[in-house]
Structures are given as C-alpha cells and as structure tokens.
Design goal:
434 Repressor (Amino-terminal Domain); mainly alpha; about 75% helix
C-alpha cells in the first residue's frame, strides 16, 4: 500500500468509518482514497460493477462471513472492521498485546542499565510490526505501536553504540517521528520528537536537535511531558552553546520540579547534571565549580546511565578546576559503570576528558577496544 494512502486510513474520519463497520462507507472511502471508479473496485474484488453499486448504495447487504473476509483481504483491511471475529482478528489482538508487553519490558531494561537486552527485544518486534504494515495493515493500534517500537529501538541503540555509529540511533527515532506525526496522538508525537531530538544531539546535529525538542516542549500537555522535553532541551542548548535557550530551559526545569513527578529522566539529580554540563560548555566555569560541590543525591529511580553521565561531567569540571584527585575518582567511577553496562560512548567521553589522568585514560582505551571487538562480532 502506498504510504500516502496508508496515512489517509489513520485520519479521524477514516477511523470513524472503520469503527462503524459500514461496508458501503468503507467501499466508498476506499475508492476515494485510491481514486478508483466502481469498475476498477469491482475488478479488484471480483464482482460486477452493478453488484458493487448496490452494495455502496445499501440496496444489497452482505452478511456472509466468507464474502466479507474476501473483501477484507482484497482491501488489506482488518477483518474486525467488517464485524468478523475469527482467527485473523484474534491474531491481531495477540500481536497488540505482545507488542505492548515488549515495549514495557524493553523500557524497564533500558532504564535499569540493560540497554543491550532492550535492543534484543525491540529489534524483532520492529521487524514484525513493519512486516504487518508493509502487508497493508492500516490499524492505528499497529502504527502507534510501530512508532513506539522504532523510537524505543533508537534510544536503546543510542546507549549501546559507539559515537561514530550514533547517527543510526537518530535514524531509528526519526522513523518513529515519521509515523507519529500522521496519527491523531499529540502525546505520542511529543514523545517521538523529544527522543529524536536527543539522539540528534548525540549525533552532533545540534540545530536540528533544538528544533525537535522545542516542538516536543510546545506539544506537551502535562507537567510530566513538558519536564521530559525541557530537560533534554536544556541539555541540547548547552551542547550547542545557546546560552539564552539553555538558561530559559534550566529555569523552567527548576520550576517544574515542584509540579512534575520525579522520573528516571527528570529529577533534581538529572537537572543538576544538565545544568553543570551546560554551565561548563557555555564558559561559566566558576558557576560550574560552585555547583559541583552541591550535587544532590541520586533518587532511587535514577538510572545507571545518568549516574555515569553525572560522574563524567563532574570529573570534567573538577579537572578544569585543577583538582586531579577528585576528578580521578569521578572518572574511574564513570569508567567502571560504563564498562559494567556496556556503554561505549560514555567510555569515549572518559577518554576525551582524561588526558590529565593517563592511567584512567589507558584503562578506558583498553575497555573501548574490547567492547568494539564484541560489538563487531
């Protein structure tokens, strides 16, 4: 099915027609979307033009499940849209339940420091859902799940790939954005945009990252969603050295601490790390040095990834202050965590940041070489 036609079936109007299970309306809409005269639709279904005309006008009612199933298969629409509950419909429901479970488990795995396991779960799910879509299935539930699976896969890959391969993660999250923008689901679109923006930042595409993250923030309907977008926007603005945008995002993040629930992504601890890194990146070392001494304790739900990120950032600031002993302790802790959780680009951050700590840098280079070898295998 052509992509443009597929998206037309996801519109509220088309979904309303499918929900009503009105065969005359389904046939008329199908002809409209494909720009087909009745003769061509009749040829596709294997019936006469007059028969199709009577069905469309409602003068001929079809109740035979075999005929309805044949029409569903020829139009590549789910059988339940024609009121048929059979093995095909049960398989459709089973796929949805399976996909929802995999997405939940993959998210838990990634947040607890097992991003590789998340990739292993999500890759076959994405392939299975894409196969259904490519076969012409237009169910909004399947497309929504595929968007979430693509984004989830991209985020997980963004944890386990070395820096030179991070554009792959951005491409997968971008594929999720492509679907989400066609669906009538603002929350899903904001979710896809903020993760795509974050992966673009990691891939070095700073302006594109900021554009996606601003849109995600503006689409947010709840304090939770806005906080998730704002903290990533602050991170990207700091990396891009956009002082005004960084300061605005950090200020909003501080205000949201009072209204948004603490999550693995957004908390006092993660906002502190983002602010610390951004101050250092925008040339405000005295403020960064002052801030590093006031680090809050990680919350229970703070992921291993964020603890490692925070240790590297603190080590960078301490080195710039000249406190090599404290910096070495932070860098070694970050390296140990990055090796344990197989996070190559965090090891690469340690390597770049530890020129003044040669023993840690040498250990990090050896760890990266081993991990690259494992990834290549």
């Amino acid at each position: 099915m052509h992509d443009g036609i597929r998206w037309h079936w996801t519109t509220p109007r088309a979904q309303d027609v499918l929900r009503r299970r009105s065969l005359p309306e389904i046939l008329a809409l199908y002809r409209e979307l494909h720009d087909l005269p009745q003769q061509e639709l009749a040829d596709l279904l294997g019936y006469s033009t007059s028969y199709i005309s009577r069905v469309e006008t409602g003068s001929r009612t079809i109740t035979d499940t075999g005929v309805l199933r044949h029409i569903a298969e020829r139009l590549k629409l789910p059988s339940h849209c024609f009121g048929i509950t059979d093995a095909t419909d049960r398989d459709h429901r089973a796929v949805i339940q399976f996909a929802e479970s995999v997405l939940r488990l993959a998210e838990i795995a990634r947040q607890t420091g097992h991003a590789g396991a998340a990739v292993d779960e999500l890759w076959p799910l994405v392939m299975r859902l894409e196969s259904r879509v490519n076969d012409g299935h237009v169910e909004v539930e399947i497309l929504r799940l595929l968007a979430g699976a693509r984004v989830g896969l991209g985020v997980a890959l963004g944890h386990v790939l070395p820096e030179e391969r991070l554009p792959t993660a951005a491409r997968w999250t971008g594929k999720g954005v492509v679907i989400s923008r066609h669906l009538d689901d603002r929350t899903l679109h904001a979710y896809a945009l903020r993760h795509h923006g974050n992966e673009l930042r990691k891939a070095g595409l700073h302006r594109a990252a900021l554009e996606r993250l601003v849109r995600a923030r503006d689409l947010a309907r709840t304090p939770h969603d806005r906080a998730a977008a704002v903290i990533l926007l602050a991170r990207a603005a700091g990396t891009a050295k956009d002082v005004a945008m960084f300061d605005d995002a950090v200020s909003e993040g501080s205000r949201l601490l009072d209204t948004a629930d603490s999550t693995p992504l957004f908390s006092e601890f993660t906002l502190h790390e983002v602010r610390l890194r951004g101050l250092a990146a925008t040339g405000r070392l005295p403020q960064a040095v002052d801030l590093v001494e006031r680090s809050p304790n990680p919350a229970l739900q703070t992921s291993p990834q964020w603890r490692i990120i925070s240790a590297v950032t603190a080590g960078q600031v301490l080195l710039r202050r000249g406190d090599h002993s404290a910096a070495r302790e932070q860098m070694q802790a970050a390296l140990d965590g990055a090796v344990l959780h197989r996070l190559p680009h965090q090891i690469q951050r340690v390597i770049r940041s530890s020129d003044a700590i040669p023993d840690v840098q040498e250990k990090a280079q050896g760890a990266l070489a081993r991990l690259r070898s494992e990834i290549a295998a």
